[in-house]
């Protein structure tokens, strides 16, 4: 399946998301904040980043902006986990999952973004 980087400062959410995505067959790496997530994205070049909006050191949107500005990471697909659905839609992301979210909704969102990427859309 896909290589996915999950970035969240809440260790419980990080663990739950990781377990769910691994159960779906994905290779999952994690990072505890936006700065560590950006470094991991640059080093590992995952197929998809799933990141929380509000994190220390770099927020999800700040992380996305830096990734899009770097040719090495500009094409990595990006999903935000957020309660700010309207702002998320305007941020240039590939998808978002509104908080509070179910793990099934998260898995469906990941599948949809990955499928769009494979089809070239």
Automatic annotation (TrEMBL):
Record-level GO BP terms: phosphorelay signal transduction system
PROSITE patterns: RESPONSE_REGULATORY
Domain of life, source organism: Bacteria
This protein's record includes keyword Phosphoprotein: yes
Name of one Pfam family that matches: Response_reg
Alphabetical UniProt keywords: Phosphoprotein
Ranges for domain Response regulatory: 3-114
SMART domains, per database record: REC
Sequence positions bearing 4-aspartylphosphate: 52
Protein name per the record: Response regulatory domain-containing protein
Species this protein is from: uncultured Solirubrobacteraceae bacterium
Species classification: Bacteria, Bacillati, Actinomycetota, Thermoleophilia, Solirubrobacterales
